[in-house]
Amino acid sequence: MDAFPILLSFQVSLAATVLTLALGLPLAWVLARRRFPGHDVVEAAVVLPLVLPPTVLGYYLLVVIGARGPVGRLLDGLGIELAFTWRAAVLAACIGSIALLVKAAQAGFEAVDRRLEQAARTLGRSEWNIFWSVTLPLSWRAVFAGTVLAFCRALGDFGITLMVAGSIPGLTQTMPLAIYDYVQANQMREANLLSLVAVMTALLFLLGLGRLARLRF
Amino acid sequence: MVKAFVLCVFTLAAAVGPAVAQSKQPALTVYGAADLTVAFREIAALFEKGTGSKVVLVLGSTGNLAKQIEHGAPADIFFAANATFVDDLQAKGAVIPETRQLYAQGRIVLAVPRDGKLSIPRLEDLRRPEVRRIAIANPEHAPYGRAAQQALQAAGLWDALKPRLVYGENVRHALQFIETGAVDAGIVARSVADTPAVRHVPINPALHAPLNQIAAVVKRSARPELALAFLQFVNGPEGRPIMKRYGFLLPGDF
Amino acid sequence: MLQLAVRKQLPGFTLDVAWEAGDEVVALFGASGAGKTLTLQCLAGLERPDRGRILVNGTVFFDDGTGTNVPSRRRRLGYVFQGYALFPHLSVADNVGYGLHDRSREERQRRTAEMLERLGLTGLADRRPRELSGGQQQRVALGRALAVDPELLLLDEPLSALDAPLRRQLRTELMGVLREWGNATVLVTHDLAEAFQLADRIVIYDGGRIVQAAPKSELLSRPASEQVARLLGVRNILRGTVLKATPEIIELSWRGYVLEAINSPIRTYLPLPGTEVAFFIRPEYVRLIRKDRPVDPGHHMNRMEGAVVREVDQGTNWTLLVTLDHAGTPAQGDHDLEIEVPKLVYEMLEIARDRRWAVSMHRGSIQVLPAA
Description:
The complex is a heterotrimer.
Chain A: H1 4-33, H2 39-51, H3 54-65, H4 70-77, H5 86-110, H6 114-122, H7 127-155, H8 159-165, H9 175-184, H10 188-216
Chain B: H1 2-23, E1 28-33, H2 37-51, E2 55-60, H3 62-70, E3 77-79, H4 84-91, E4 101-106, E5 108-113, E6 134-137, H5 143-154, H6 158-161, E7 165-168, H7 171-179, E8 185-189, E9 198-202, E10 211-217, H8 224-234, H9 239-245
Parallel strand pairs in B: 1-2, 1-3, 6-7, 6-8
Antiparallel strand pairs in B: 3-10, 4-10, 5-8, 5-9
Chain C: E1 2-10, E2 13-21, E3 25-30, H1 36-44, E4 51-56, E5 59-63, E6 68-69, E7 77-80, H2 92-96, H3 105-118, H4 134-147, E8 152-156, H5 164-181, E9 184-189, H6 192-198, E10 201-206, E11 209-215, H7 216-221, H8 226-231, E12 237-245, E13 249-254, E14 257-262, E15 276-280, E16 287-288, E17 304-313, E18 317-324, E19 337-342, H9 343-348, E20 356-360, E21 367-369
Helix pairs in contact in C: 3-4
């Protein structure tokens, strides 16, 4: 049985989580600390991927990044492949899970006493510095919880990944897709084995993360 | 301790990177209809042995695969389960028109779980009240599903049976419903029905439009010659016996 | 040197204030919600005024005319927040040194140690804020604000988070720190005693506006209006009718008595006869005339007679509520005047037993308030 889907899934999920943090933390901060026209719309839009059927989401994404879509054609011109590669799997996993991080982080940031940030401001720190030295340390539990949730969701993504990355064995066939293929082909022995390995690996990873969380204090 | 964990994670991530890159070898990517599952596994293995080129099979419902190819899926060649989806791709300029070729004609069968209590020799028997659920591939995007629908309509059973139908993504999926006993009966491709868990009887091909299965080389392919070679392999002396064994009718035989 | 003129519109509240101060301690005094903290935040750059100009030590912090708005982090000031806003995740030492991030490591450590020692916090350097008492937290907040050597110190209700006995003690400590530091300080408080003890100049806020800004000595003796007097908690605010007004003297009719008051030397106030004016006399300046000695008219002016109807024990003093003999409704509900006597005097004159008394008021103690 091929171990490739598991390794691919972990790599994709880790990369997706990094992408989620890079995009989601600033977004959560803006939503928590700034009022602007359309604030509610953005908040709703963030949650939308959790609500839409994954295959629908995947399809519209494919239309945009596929060979005939605006983004796809642009990338093609630059020689970058996105659709039907592992990068698309990362994108799919990120889109499906970013809402979990944003909501948790936003709540965490909102709970930080604004006066602490004001104090930091009067003491000469820049906004960027204040985020890393005050806001994030005081909200890290919420951010951490959101990150773990996002990672798990990324690990299990199926519908969106199937649409934009396809289930190409040895290339983009992540663990959930591989298990599904085995089940569909009625290769239950392989399906069960892969599922077992997947669950065990995920459990170990999550236990490690949990231990990490408790270590802080 | 924290640092060690983080280091582990990143090493794992980094180590897999090369693994992914490596898998992107110059292999021939064959997108094929679900009914070719069993047959193509054999043919692909033979092709690999013969030419030394690795073959990657991506099988599913014709409609879904066509859509993906339309949006740039990395297929070298597409084996559809009918003609219309290939025509569609041709109109969109996604395949090389000169390579378009008929490679088989499919058949549908009526199948039941082998350990089921029902014995269903004919289509009309599907009417019986004990037959509560019937699986077919989705007629929207699976040619075999559409053929199943046509057969039921021709037999005057469609309206009566429609409420009891369960749609699988493709014939493989529909077959799985039957194998696991989740449904009482189903209509699937002949070529996938030879599994121990299932019994099947043929359905009169006159009841549906011919399942003329067309293949074409995808325009975006980086290896069109290899793709064509594979097509010829399938239609040639090595491939035909295998196709025949799985109940396909071959060009020249019909 | 500080010049501030600020206008800011909020839903349901308008702030429109202007005042100045030198290198001294200025207290912004007023009820909650009067706009004091908002002013402080505008000074600090944490809020942006709609209009106005803020000038500190020659630097323009804000000017809506030129579009200048120096960001908070560049204003070089120290801000002690109400409730202190200490960083809960940092140690005392890291809190104090937080503003020193742009200095070298040695300098940061040196300055921090210096500050901790100055405020008596050396042993607590590694503790977290939640492990500290209220007084210790206040000192850490001060230390944090002062460590960066600011040009201006801002304090928002620095003592309101503490209970009364501690507050008194820390007020004295704070006074010491401020005196030693010596630069311009702006202090927000709703406690009059705090304002008087700590500040040199007091700016009185009411509903988003200034009603009086003056050195503290001037404030109590010469409130600008009846409204200010009330805000300052002045007692015995009374209303009388002018009989005669000259630059030296104002003669009033009140409760059937004729009172003579010295006119304000600074502001020649000449109300027309028949005008109703407000005036006050501080309770501690109404004198009881001793019965065992002859009365000296030069000493006892504006004599009246009455009886004590109620008294309130103030701990070290007694407040006597006195109704005068003349017919008519008493001026302040059930009494005409409040008189404050030290406990010693109360006991010596046996006021508990002897309730009838003649009182006098020196003409210099009667303050006539100009119309608001």
